What we know:
By secondary structure, the protein is of the alpha/beta class. The chain has helices spanning about 15-25, 45-55, 70-80, 90-100, 115-130, 155-165, 200-210, 225-240, 255-275; strands at about 1-10, 30-40, 60-65, 85, 145-150, 170-175, 190-195, 245.
Amino acid sequence: MTRLHLHLLSDSTGETLENIAKAGIAQFENVEAIRHFWPMVRSELHLNRIMEEIAMNPGLVLFTLANSDLRRKLENRCRALGLPHVAALDAVTDAMSNILGQETRNRPSRKHILDEAYFARIEAIQFTIAHDDGVAHENWEEADIVLAGVSRASKTPTSIYLANRGYKTANIPLIMESPPPESLYRLKHPLVVGLTISPERLVQVRRNRLLSLNQAPETNYVDIERVQAEVAFARRIFADNGWPVIEMTRRSIEEAAAAIINLFNERVLNDAEAKAS
């Protein structure tokens, strides 16, 4: 199995770019494509942050950027890093330009019209932000996905990524001294997914978090025996309720989100088949 990091940069929602990437990958066998999705890239500051991530996970860069200055900066940075980069729509728009005798409009994709899909994505983002870290659990039944896990298991960034893909996502920290609300175990509509992580990696993440906040780096929060107990507590809850579990120790947010979306789609398909039978 060959692994390929695929970076998708768009100045709009990126749906067209993602479909192109999927179609391309489908032409190859035994390839594991790790997609890094970067929508709404419209500033140099945003691009600089993205390039730092790309440098850490080098691969193929596909982009649709209408802003010529931003596009030039991306191309220069890719060349400096020795990374292949492709403007995914250039061949198509160039051919149309020649046939129509017109220049393309130099502005972010006109696909960014406020259509139904766009509003759904905005609604998902608003819902997810309002239901972060166990907040407003009385509304969880309205979610598409609920993520559960111990503190610093990447619940919030994964939720935000899923929201940008159009999924209403809530998340809840599992704390031994403070059991989650009973409503968590009675949810019908949302897919509940457990996020877990090795205790050793979790201690490292938490210690870095404390240092970034200028707090004492040696507390119960990073005690290895305590952390092992927390992780075991969460795993028991996952097992008792039959929730699917995503291991986050060596997974990126993009990889975790892709796995969760696959689980969600499988559930929707199974529900549809059950109703039809």
